Amino acid sequence: EFLLESSLVGRLIGKGGSNLQAIETAHGVRLSLRNSPDEGYTTVSISGDDRAAVEKVRELTEVVKETMAVEPPMIGWARGRDGSSLRGIKSTAGLQDCLVD
């Protein structure tokens, strides 16, 4: 069981539940979502007979959010031409998203 930012729940579920169904079918687990007492979060529970499969799905679905400060003069460099640096970071690190605010 872990907390997921409510803004990311749609991405986990997928269109018509397609992502949830694919995860459950591929790994033989059951995912359930419920409102968390922590505002802005949803509780994700994973259950299944195979402990290794449950742990694997947890790794796949859990979101790790890292924030890194970038000095204003370096923002353009961090982004790269047409976002090329961000795409490279995303690809190399296996990230779902890489944003500059």
UniProtKB/TrEMBL annotation:
It comes from the Eukaryota. Residues 1-65 form the K Homology domain. Gene3D superfamilies: K Homology domain, type 1. Pfam families: KH_1 (PF00013). The keyword RNA-binding applies. GO terms for molecular function: RNA binding. Keywords: RNA-binding. This is K Homology domain-containing protein. It comes from Polarella glacialis.
